[in-house]
Structures are given as structure tokens and as C-alpha cells.
Amino acid sequence: MKTRTTICAALAVVALTGAGIAAARMGESPAPVVSSSQWQLLRTADGTLIEDAFTEAIPSRDVQDVYEFNGDTDPSRTFVKATEGGLVVGADPPPTADTHTGWFAVTIDAYPRTSIFHVRMSKPPGNVQGHDEAGQAVFAVQTASTKVTGLINFVEVTTSSSGGKTSWQIDYSFGHVVDAQNILYWSTEPSENAADTEEVTLRTDGRRSLTVWLGDEQVFHSDQLELDIQAPFQPYLEVQALQTPYFASFQDFWVVEDTWMRLTGLPAGADVRLVNDEGGVLGGAAASADGTAAVELPPYAAKGSGTLEIARDGHETVRLGPFPYAGGDELQLVAK
User: Fold this and answer.
1) Of the candidates 220, 239, 256, which is a domain's last residue?
2) Exposure pattern of 145-178 as b/e (b: 16+ CB <10 Å)?
3) Same structural domain, 321 and 248
């Protein structure tokens, strides 16, 4: 069963009245997501599994309804704060520590193998100057079975700063906490001018395949890997630090169920496409004889705002939107 989790949604459950619970159990007709004078588009299933923009201050106790805070740094030397500038995760390791220590926010829920994971990840402006000091902002996708198996197997995208330069990296770690091993898959050259912020999108099947996008650029792909990341998966928003205080910031965090958006109720043979708010085509398909179509979205754009265009020979193109969409959505076109 698909579930959709957000901080606001978690709080709304607490406020649900007895009558509201009864209505939810009975089920209600889906509300239109967008309509025109002749048509309306209904969302019969929501592909969004979690979404948090992190563009406003939220009390930590409310964030902890959806996320768990943990790590290997003394908790008194860490913080997690939801601010207008993002979910900020910080650590101040002891100056005598000779290895990285970290702190993270991890979702309480876990997500299926088909999921797409996305976040806008930022490090502090500038670079860590000391050669013996280091700071890392980390977006990791890890097996949710760690508490059962003891394995911490995960893939991650990291921006690492030390010695006056910063690089972006993709790697795989596997094993137990005390003896985990690491394989580096991809890295930029350390630079004084490396980007402070990247839109990170990640997809893996936990076995053979891993693909990572920075913005709309695919920077790594392989389907010949040897991964042992047991589904379901949990995403981690994390900071790592060595001999210096450091923090990472996260915004526009979301997980969607898949890259496919499925539509029913279309005119047979109609050409349908989804375009973004700038007019760029995200995906398209032809409706089958029974009026169904599956539009595949680019993973880095598997959640956003778009307009559905439906074209038939001899008929005016129907445009519905803009409306929020997500990979895994199931939508139904209905005549008014």
C-alpha cells in the first residue's frame, strides 16, 4: 500500500476527528486536481511517498514525527533545525577525534525498490581550509533492515571539503558499522570553485543498478554493480565532520514511487504529453484502444508542476494544468 508522509501530514493525523476517520475508512471520490470547461482530471492514486520543502521554520519535535535523529557524534555536540533556509544538520566533533563523526536525519518510513530519491543539498559557502580538517554533506540511501541484520549497506552522494578545496563524490559502503568497506564510483576533481549546492536525484535497485543525476545531468550510471542493499530503503540527510564544526542543509526533499504516470479515461488513440511550466516536454505516449496511457518521466523531474496536453486528429488540443504531478500517480480523465 502506498503511503504519503510529510511533516504537515503527520501532524494532521493527530487532529483528525472521529467523523473524519470514519469518512477516510469509507473512502471518498477523488477530488479533481485540475479541470477545464469540459474535462476534469482526477488523481486516483498518489505517487508521492514523502515530500518536505524545508522552506519554513518547524519545531524539532514536529520534525521528529517523520524523521529520526542519530549518528556517532555526542548528541550534545550536534543539532538538527528546520529553518527557512532548509533542514540544517550540524556536528561539532571533539578536536582530538582522528576520524569523521556524523549526525543525520533519517525518515522513519522506508520506501520500495522502484523509488526515486531527490534533495537539494548544500554545504556551507567556501571551503574547509585545514588539511587535517574535513566537512561533508551527505545524501545516502540505505537498507532499512540494519536493525535486524546489522548491515549498514548504502549508496551516497557526498560533497567533501578539506585543504581549501571541495569535490562531489558517489560511492557504495557495505558491511557492519565497525568494519564497513567503501567503493568510490565517481568523483569530481577537488576544486576551490566547486558548487556549494546541487540538485541530487538517485535511483538504485539495491542489487546491480545505480543512477545519479546532478541537476538534469546524469553523472553516473551502471547496471553491472554488485550491491547488497536490501529493500525497502531509507534516505539519510547527513553531515560528517573531522576536527572542525560543520553543517549541511537540505531542501526540496522528496521520494516518489516510480517514473511512470498512468492515465485512464483518455480518448482512444489520443496523443498525450506532459509539459513543464516552462513548456518543455517531460514525456508523452499514445492512448490505447481502452483509453489508457503510461507517460514515463525523467527521474530528475519525477515530481513537479506540469500541464497535460491531449491531442486528437480533427479536435482541438485539450490542455489541463498546471497541476502538481509525481511519478507513480494514477490519473483519470473524466468529462463534465
Assistant:
1) 256
2) bbeeeebbbbbbbbbbbbeebbebbbbbbbeeee
3) no
